[in-house]
Amino acid sequence: MDHDVVVIGAGAAGLMCAITAAARGRRVLVLDHANKVGKKILMSGGGRCNFTNTGTTPANYLSANPHFCKSALARYTPADFIALVDAHGIAWHEKELGQLFCNDSSKQIVRMLLDECAAVGADVRTHCTVERIERPDSGGFHLRTTLGSVECASLVIATGGLSIPSMGASGFGYDVARQFGHDVLPQRAGLVPLTLSGKHQQRLQDLSGVSFEVEARCNGARFRNQLLVTHRGISGPAILQISSYWQPGDDLRLDLLPMHDASSWLALQQRERGNAELRTVLSDVLPKRFAQRLCEVWLPSRPMKQYTPAQLKDIASTLADWPLVASGTEGYRTAEVTLGGVDTDGLSSSTMMSKLVPGLFFIGEVVDVTGWLGGYNFQWAWASGRAAGEVA
């Protein structure tokens, strides 16, 4: 089987690359070891696929080289992908913060990509494991697969990261990168719930299910969204976002009243509700169970009129800058993305091609570019896949 381009990985980035390359007249073969394509697409957004974010900028991505993603993102924008979605008659809506979802099902996005592949003649094969990759002296690549031998001029690695191994995630792409002399930066779970241990867990674990808005802060990053207390720790969008910036030992702080200036709000409560206890006034702006636990452990509760100005200031500081000591993360099992990956220093930012091996490309999550929660990682998949497909 001879092809111009072989793409390993039939996810978002791989399928976009295949569509783009085949539209140029290239003979394209997409291989995936899974039983069906686009598994992460299918599960995304609760089954409705958060397929892009209208507010996408390079600032929404983490990478050892924050400039690397600029070229691809500038050349294939959220508007470009929305136009494709619209052309296929897929209804969508904006949920919050620029996040776009299908009205009906993420299956529509996968169907769209497969229909586009079929329209341009890209051949997509599942149940195919790549056992070995060789680079003959004559150039190109020779692949040994469970479907037989495959020859190609260009090879695109779109195998994703380590997150959600139950869906087939593996380190295959990193192994290929190392095989051909690329550096691979250390990987860790991103967009992942945080775990608590010891007294920190004991204080909160019976509040599992409690959710409220916070601003999470760590290492200069800050995200305002919902926090969810779990049996093992904390989750929710604010925590998933900050998890990508946090590592064990880092200082993590929460503003428990992001909609208020804590000092001014407490002073107002003291003036207007002097006989009410602190736990009572806090229950007006926080879930009652959480407010009571705060007052049991961190903030001794008494009638508001009994606090001195200095004591109110201390309470305000605690509410606005509450320290949370996390012990770890839930790991790749539940992580939405993998941080780290193929070092961008070895890749062209405009084409995604290896600087070491002509014709070898790395796209999507396998590369050291990781987006925020909210459709940014899909936009990187579309943009990097498009960039590679234009030249592979």
UniProtKB/TrEMBL annotation:
SUPFAM superfamilies: FAD/NAD(P)-binding domain (SSF51905), HI0933 insert domain-like (SSF160996). PANTHER family: OS12G0638800 PROTEIN (PTHR42887:SF2). This is NAD(P)/FAD-dependent oxidoreductase. InterPro entries: BaiN-like, BaiN-like_dom_sf, FAD/NAD-bd_sf, RsdA/BaiN/AoA(So)-like_dom, RsdA/BaiN/AoA(So)_Rossmann. Residues 3-390 form the RsdA/BaiN/AoA(So)-like Rossmann fold-like domain. The keyword Nucleus does not apply. Keywords: FAD, Flavoprotein. Residues 188-337 form the RsdA/BaiN/AoA(So)-like insert domain.
